[in-house]
Design goal:
Elements (H helix, E strand, L loop, with lengths): L1 E2 L2 E5 L2 E18 L7 E19 L2 E16 L6 E14 L8 E17 L2 E17 L2 E5 L8 E28 L8 E4 L2 E11 L2 E16 L2 E16 L8 E16 L2 E28 L2 E30 L4 E11 L3 E3 L2 E14 L4 E13 L7 E17 L2 E31 L8 E5 L5 H7 L4 H8 L11 E5 L3
Antiparallel strand pairs: 1-23, 2-9, 3-8, 4-5, 5-6, 7-8, 10-16, 11-13, 12-13, 13-14, 15-16, 17-23, 18-20, 19-20, 20-21, 22-23, 24-25
Length: 495
């Protein structure tokens, strides 16, 4: 005889792959005939954009482009000159159970950009881009509870847990257009960097909709002659996502990646058009009650069991630290014209997060030459991680750079913000079905008998002797959490 358990389920997503890779990319730049020969490079800037995310059978392919701007001093001296190139890259991840119906969430970071002069008319760019992905597939989360029509001599051990389920994975593209004034912009002005920082200000749930609002801090770094100037503005944006109609209020993570941009300098203004994709992952906590064990009195019972590994808690550590490091130049520094910073791949060891930093300073020397100084350092964060927690992801960014000069020494103070995503998991052993076979022969035939308790687990005692926990407690006048090891118990037999 089979006893059917009541199956319950929620539509959800399951993470089937998560991986981070570093892509090494390189390209040569030939100086066009309209520009002067290269004497020395003073700044190399790299900004990425994502082009596509494709999930195919057994793999995830992420393609992007690195826009590299090089500022150099020509052999003729000033003014500064610039070169620009776009370097495509792609990163392939093996995800065994992925197919076209899955969704991928991507993150990209530029961790290094270096320049080598091959000759006065040619330079080589070597860069590293860190690409990470998480792949999700549609997968109902199911569990089983005791049936309402079960036989009276059937007993079910129920257990409860809180499971964090992924209820939505989605993305939307959007664009921003605007302009702002820069007094230094004229026909001779050259654009050398266009950093864009996307910030999420709020995310509110209205009915079945998630409304995400934020802003983009947009900068334009230009050179004009031997001078470097920075202009900036801020533009607001919002996006609306449809969510499953449930009574549970979900948590959510939002990430934004640039997909392309266009900047133009004209008539004292900087105009821009920026395209981006917003990615969201929503999770919800569901309290479930499932059958952990079961038996039928007086009969052998065969159980089919399934394991469910579920996330039971998530939290994000957000910390800000400052790092100070110094580099001696081979010239006397008069002024720092511009600072740019790159964050390397964060590493965790012995409860500490280390974030590598590379800062390039464009400086004016006392002899009125434009030169660069490259500095390397790191920011360190102490992490308070609980015993059962694992690190799901790490990220960091430079929020500000300041400098001071002492002769040939350049000291940089970097403010670094880091995020560490932590989670705890639990494996649930869930009974999915049960079958009753021949009568149980291992128990005595007496209606009531005595036993010396070897354990405090009343369920194990009742199951072994084919009895009822409630009747054992009543006959022996027990508290459910009482210490009964070594105690003589009266055990009623249930047929």
């Amino acid at each position: 005889m089979d006893i059917s358990l009541e199956r319950k389920f929620l539509s959800s997503f399951r993470e089937i792959g998560s991986e981070k890779k570093v892509c090494n990319i390189s390209s040569d730049i030939i100086v066009p005939d309209t520009k002067a020969d290269i004497l020395r490079v003073v700044l190399t800037n790299g900004e990425y954009s994502i082009r596509s995310k494709d999930v195919e059978s057994g793999k995830v392919l992420i393609c992007g482009e690195l826009k590299v701007n090089v500022v150099y001093v020509p052999e003729s001296g000033t003014p500064l000159s610039t070169l620009c190139t776009d370097i495509p890259f792609e990163c392939e991840f093996e995800v065994e159970s992925a197919d076209s119906g899955c969704a991928a969430i991507a993150e990209i970071d530029v961790i290094s950009v270096d320049t080598r002069i091959l000759n006065p008319r040619k330079i080589m760019i070597n860069a590293q881009v860190a690409v990470s992905q998480k792949c999700f597939c549609n997968a109902d989360f199911s569990w089983y509870s005791s049936p309402g029509n079960a036989p009276k001599n059937a007993f079910f051990k129920k257990s409860s847990a809180e499971a964090r389920l992924i209820s939505a994975v989605d993305e939307k593209t959007f664009s921003l257009e605007d302009n702002f004034a820069m007094q230094c912009v004229d026909e001779e002005t050259q654009l050398i960097a266009t950093p864009v920082l996307f910030c999420t200000d709020s995310a509110d749930i209205v009915g079945s909709k998630l409304i995400v609002k934020g802003h983009a801090d947009i900068k334009a770094v230009v050179c004009n002659g031997a001078d470097i100037h920075t202009g900036e503005t801020s533009v607001s944006f919002s996006q609306i996502f449809e969510l499953p109609e449930r009574d549970i209020m979900p948590d959510y993570t939002v990430s934004i990646l640039p997909t392309g941009d266009f900047f133009e300098l004209k008539d004292g203004n900087v105009s821009f058009e920026i395209h981006a994709v917003m990615q969201i992952v929503c999770t919800e906590t569901k309290a479930i009650e499932f059958v952990e064990d079961a038996y039928v009195c007086g009969a052998e019972t065969a159980l089919d069991e399934e394991d469910r590994t579920v996330c039971i808690s998530e939290r994000t550590l957000c910390q800000t630290e400052t790092a100070q490091f110094t580099q001696s130049a081979d010239f006397d520094i008069e002024e720092v014209l511009y600072l740019s910073g790159i964050v390397g791949t964060p590493k965790v060891s012995d409860g500490e997060l280390t974030v590598p930093l590379t800062v390039e300073g464009v400086c004016a020397s006392v002899d009125e030459q434009i030169r660069s100084v490259k500095l390397h350092g790191s920011a360190k964060f102490e992490l308070e991680i609980e015993e059962n927690e694992t690190i799901d992801s790490t990220s960091a960014c430079i929020s500000s750079l300041k400098s001071s000069i002492n002769g040939k020494d350049l000291t940089v103070t970097a403010t670094v913000a880091a995020q560490v995503q932590l989670k705890q998991t639990r494996t649930l052993q869930i009974v999915s079905s049960m079958a009753v076979t021949e009568p149980k022969e291992s128990i005595p035939t007496a209606s009531v008998y005595m036993c010396m308790a070897q354990t405090n687990d009343l369920w194990d005692i009742a199951k072994h002797y084919s009895s009822d926990i409630g009747m054992i407690i009543a006959l022996n006048e027990l508290d459910e959490d009482a210490d009964i090891v070594g105690r003589l118990l009266i055990i009623p037999r249930i047929k």
